[in-house]
Amino acid sequence: MNGTKSNNKAIGERAEFSLDDVEVKAKQPLYQGFLTTEKWTLRHRLFAGGWTPWIEREVMRRGHAVMVIPYDRQRDEMVVLEQFRVGAMETSDSPWLYEFVAGMIDEGETLEQVAMRELSEETGIQQADLTYALSYLSSPGGTTERIHIYIADVDASHGHKLAGLDAEHEDIKVHRLARTVVMDMLEQGKIDNAASVIGLQWFQLHQQQWLTK
Q: Residue 117 — pLDDT band, cuts 50, 70, 90?
């Protein structure tokens, strides 16, 4: 033994701290538009005991979202979207990304209602059997956004070739691709946005329950 104190807390047990161990003194609005930012003044408890000094953090609020991976079990196909994303312009060869159905949660909507609304708007598919996969924080160092992911059992032949709402400036090309092709795209880095990567990796971990239904 090297004398280092062992931490016997198992991974996955309740966290040592909670919201009660954070004190927020102020939230100052900075900007409100498509994205909203605030400056928070806060402090939190330390693992070694005591509190941090008062610190300032810029926090972006953009609501929470639902993403849906449409999967046609009978044809072993996935419905993949291609559309422009401004945030990809600085680091990608093309800002037209391959991704999946997604949308923000409006006040009063359930997750399932958002999933079905966005599935209809972005693919033209009206019917689906939804299975909840997981949720995650998209970038908790600077934004409050949480994304919920569903797998939708669909008939891919009911999808449109082009979709999206003009009012939201959406211009979406809809692709029907074999599941194996989509997984190859993931492996090759052709699908590289976080929600799609995380959703596809979840699907890979659980794909036997889908391929044998």
A: very high
- Residues contacting 43, CB < 8 A, separation 6+: 22, 23, 25, 51, 52, 53, 54, 55
Does 7 or 159 have the greater pLDDT score? 159
> How far does the chain reach from its first CA to its final CA, in angstroms?
51
CA angle 146-151-153, nearest 5°? 155
CA distance 96 to 42: 39
Residue type, 150: Y
DSSP 51-63: BPPPEEEEEEE--
pLDDT at 1: 41
Is 168 annotated in the active site? yes
Select which of 13, 90, 107, 168 is catalytic: 168
Which residue in this structure is represented by tokens 């949308």? 103
